[in-house]
Design brief:
By secondary structure, this protein is an alpha+beta fold. Helix content is 26%, strand content 19%. A hairpin with a 4-residue loop joins strand 4 and strand 5. It starts with a helix and ends in a 31-residue tail after the last helix. Bound molecules: zinc ion. Zinc ion binds next to loops.
């Protein structure tokens, strides 16, 4: 009996350490394209991707082993674009989500979510939309107009971080000359030959492997 009491006290203590009391915190939830935004009354917001939430379902009806409490659901068991059909937040801060994936239902204690907030107050940056035609140029167009060619390469490098030059051939030294002829020497020498049987690289190690 005393043993059980001590055990209970230990468990209570554990929860006190691991969960801050959020009873005075109020939350609002807002759906975004592929994540749920949770706002608290201190103007913080926490974003949770639907995919992450679905994978972190705590139920014992297919997601966790009831005896060992181990997670049994794999990220390949549900669609990558899973999303909530419905969601409710109770007064005691329990978030219930019914998923598009076989109407599965997950419940999350808001304490758990805030403790595991991996994207607090972050700014989402949209991925740049780059079409191949934005970075692609045809070397034949320039003929002897080296400066124009160089300028067009630079514009693409500055804007998109890459340039694809068609029809330039495979003469490495000629391509280097297009860009001034100067190279920054690396651990492998002036040029690194990517062929496995090369004999020209300064070092043939795998940088620590
Ligand atoms: Zn579940």
């Amino acid at each position: 009996m005393l043993k059980n009491f001590i055990k209970l006290k230990q468990i209570q203590q554990y929860f006190k350490i691991s969960y801050k009391h959020l009873s005075n915190t109020y939350f609002q939830i807002e759906n975004k394209s592929n994540y749920l935004r949770v706002k608290d009354n201190n103007n913080n917001y926490h974003d949770f991707h639907y995919f992450w939430l679905r994978h972190n379902c705590s139920c014992f009806k297919g997601c966790n082993n009831a005896q060992t409490k181990e997670r049994t659901i794999s990220t390949t068991d549900f669609p990558i674009d899973v999303y909530p059909l419905t969601q409710t937040l109770s007064k005691d801060n329990i978030l219930t989500i019914e998923w598009s994936d076989a109407n599965h239902v997950s419940k999350f204690d808001m304490n758990y979510l805030i403790e595991n907030s991996y994207a607090k107050n972050i700014t989402h940056v949209n991925e740049p939309i780059i079409k191949l035609s934005d970075v692609e140029i045809d070397y034949n167009k320039y003929k002897t107009q080296t400066l124009e060619y160089f300028k067009d390469c630079k514009i693409r490098l500055d804007t998109y971080g890459s340039v694809i030059v068609r029809n330039r051939g495979i003469d490495t030294e000629a391509i280097i000359q297009d860009f001034g002829g100067e190279l920054f020497h690396s651990h492998f020498g002036r040029l690194e030959d990517l062929k496995t049987d090369n004999t020209t690289n300064k070092n043939t190690d795998q940088l620590g492997n």
